[in-house]
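Supplementary material to the annual report.
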Amino acid sequence: MPTNRSNTRSGSLSPGYNPVMRPSFFNHLHPPTIPAEQSRWRYTLGAGGTGVFLLLVVAATGILEMFYYIPTPDMAAQSIQTITYLVPLGGFVRNLHFWSAQALIVVSAIHLLRVVFTGAYAPPRRFNYLLGLGLFIISLLLDFTGYVLRWDQGVQWALVVGTNLIKTVPLLGNWLYVLLTGGSELGLATLIRFYAWHIFGLTLGAMILTVWHAFRVRRDGGIAVPPPALRRDQRRISRHELARREVAAMLFTGAALVILSATMAAPIAAPIHDLGAMSGNARAPWFFLWVQQVLKWGDPFVLGVALPLGILFLLALLPYVLPKPASAELGRWFPKSNRAAQLIVAIVSAGLIALTIIGRLSTP
Amino acid sequence: MRRYLIFIGAGLLLLSVLAAWGASARGPKPVELVPTLTGKPEYCLTCHGDLPQISSSHPIKTFGCIICHGGEALALDANLAHSTMRGGANPSDLTVVEQSCGGSQCHSGSAAEDRDHIQRVMRSVQSTYSGAIASMLYTFGAQPDLTARYGMHAVTDDQITTSTGVAELQAFNAAQFNNSSVSQFAANCTTCHINAKPNEGAEYARWNGCSTCHTPQAPDQTAGTGGKVHQLTTAISYTQCNTCHNRGNYDLRTMTFVPRTDQPTDRLHNYYQPIAQFTQCEYKLDCIDCHTRTEAMGDGDIHSNKIEIQYIQCKTCHGTPTQLPQTKTLMDPNDIAFRLADLNVVAELNVGDTILVTDKGEPLWNTRVLPDGTYKLISKADGRVFIFKPVMGSGCTQDPSRQDSAYCHTCHAIQR
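Predicted assembly:
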């Protein structure tokens, strides 16, 4: 197969490439050159790449935490105290894990908004948009399960109310509750299940979807920009330049994480003594504050289960029901051709942010 | 991209890592303690290493901190570590005393093993305030007699051992009486039972629960330091009793507390209200030199008045013109007298020693009968020694049937 590509597993532009070998995954993600428009900070915000970096930090720090965390109701919170206060650098590693997980949600949300507000989900990227959406949901679930693993009074509300919400699902509610919690009431089986989901089930899903998502970015022709004929900037950058930009983003993100982790401790509270007594912090984790807020206003199933699922469904449908954004307008913010999607997502985001703020300000 | 961005980023990351490392290195180095009673590590001493051991009966290596105080043993953050402490700084507060002082059957349990301190205190007039409540309700026509029906907390007794014992008290709630005097009483006169928040002022300052009496120096509320004292003792000085007693009077007409206005400069005048009569025993000795733990903490029954439980009289130690005081020669090494003496070592007590006992047979372990027929009392608070004689053989001509302390005061009261 004649080829002039040199992105071999050896990873260099050297002439000694092996034409039989496929490019390595790294080189698949970093072709010899890419259009300069595809890696402009102003356009991508670097959100996708930063998300991958955060995921790596979360994974590395999470693996370290696994050496000390004990997933039983009577030991979980104590083992977290051990990590936080007694293990050398344990508190710092835990803070890193916490802050990169929170940052991952924020960065993923920014990435999603960027994709919608630039019309980048247009075919052929519709499927990858769904993968990304799935990844975002998995990140939220990872954050929630990790939050529950604290098993202290700070997570008690979310644990009890969150799991009880499942019971409100018509017909399947009780069955789903047992599936989620491992029994008719919260306890050891519940914690083990959350733990298994956190460190295995969801993590595996996140790994597969991340690799698939990144792989599809290249398979779909790289980050969305207009076809070559319509591009205003015809310049290209080398994979070295791309890698340099990624490294710079990682260094700055890393520095921000270290500063956050050194100055602001991840939340911790006293162990749960009585799951029935709703003492302690009655506030949901920040990314579910909006759910907690709408729950005050009516039927738990409609507002707590159907509404979030409805929003997810709406987001998933965008590329399939709305007109395809114009190819010429790709790579630009707020193209005219996808105003409808921008409006819908802007309204949904504004609503969620407003509910989150109200939820934060009101007494739980 | 400008290449120096990489160097700036790398420099920033390096700096922040160094700063984080420096910050964590400045933190406290954890100090571990594994008390033998719990066998579980605790790290309270990381910050509290300067606290004195609370008492020789509670050695830190045996008890640690958590077994009494609760709290998060592993947390090095003050807020978290203190968040689950029992009773805040005072685990002997009666609302939590059963879990702290009573835990593992230490000071809670059966009367037979003399482990029922908490049960006795919970029923005693010092904590129920039942005598004051009963007297007040009777005075204002809210109940037909002086028998106690209400306490500051509800309490029951299924083993009544005295003729004046009451089976149960309901929690006193002034609102149910619809009586302004009762409401006034509730508002103004309920700061003296041992689980009440005391009045403002250094002279009233004390802890609650067991520490009301057993933590010697009162917290100095006026100094602004909180004056926290980490000590438990059985050598209780009269000054501790004075944080409640001898502080003034209650005006029954207005149902208000009227603090004493005089400022005594010596112990003689420190003690008593102007019209009270007393002998030198009552201002030279400490209260606990005569009054027993049963009087102070109760006998396990619920009583309707202090009088029913306060039974030490002059004659307990001095006898009467016709009778010597009751004595007991300690032959059993397991006698409770030895346990009490061990808890407050002011004088050696040996098998074969003869001591005075109360009418109820309680050992007055700080007394000795001397060979010459006189008696010795060693002050429990400070070890001072007093030698005294029996009434019998003295010139006392008092009617032998009238031997209560009030009669003694007639001749022996100090002139003020």
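Residues 47-280 of chain A form a domain with the Cytochrome Bc1 Complex; Chain C fold (CATH 1.20.810.10).
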